[in-house]
Amino acid sequence: MFNSLLVVVAAAAAAVYAQQPAWAQCGGIGWSGGTTCVSGYYCSNINAYYFQCVPGVASSSASTASTSSAPQTTTSKTTATTTASSTTSASAPASSATSGVQIRAVQDPIFHLYLQNQNDTAVLGPEASSGYFTIGGTIALNGGAAPLYLNIGSETTSYRSLTFGSTASFSGWGLEGDTIITTQSSKYGRQLNFVACKVGSVFQTYLQLGSDVPAGSCTNYVSLHLPCLC
Ligand SMILES: *[C@@H]1O[C@H](CO)[C@@H](O)[C@H](O)[C@H]1NC(C)=O
């Protein structure tokens, strides 16, 4: 009953805006645009800062995430910033998203693009939708109901896809200074090169073990770093 009331309130708040098109942003901290998606898409909580219209029907957790964003954005539009930030910190995804570190590339054409999740695939994209990670053995993406882990594909090429999953199948990630590596004792040995290939407006990211490069517009020998030694 309380939930359905929330949905009605959220729908009323969202009705001010047009429905968001496929793949558009539909919520997240700081978002003040529409929070509903066109038919066939639902608003999925990619991370606390970025909700996106993705194909399908909302699961109960996804619809909770998108409805909770509506009061948040409404509040930030109608009240002072201080009120908005206290609203933000009261929501569970927001507080967990602020924990963790960002991971970014530092060379052209991906200079200061940030690691994040798109369709469970690791991509480098804008800071506004950056993931926040906990690194140590696994690389855990914070901000959702439960962390998602950065896993390495088992392709036979020397580039391996990087995906996010609810269980960690690789626990050999580490840091060397501010640089992301697979550790010497891991099954890949010490690696610190990645391949980034343009997909839409972001770059799909692969672990690079040799000189193979996927078809398309790719940059290899990319390294990934924390923004600071922090
Ligand atoms: C995610 O899926 C959409 C729709 O299929 C696609 O346009 C986008 O390129 C995908 N992202 C990646 C990184 O594959």
UniProtKB/TrEMBL annotation:
GO terms for biological process: carbohydrate metabolic process. SUPFAM superfamilies: Cellulose-binding domain (SSF57180). It comes from the Eukaryota. GO terms for cellular component: extracellular region. GO terms for molecular function: cellulose binding. Transmembrane segments: none annotated. Residues 1-18 form the signal peptide. This is CBM1 domain-containing protein. It comes from Exidia glandulosa HHB12029. The lineage of its organism: Eukaryota, Fungi, Dikarya, Basidiomycota, Agaricomycotina.
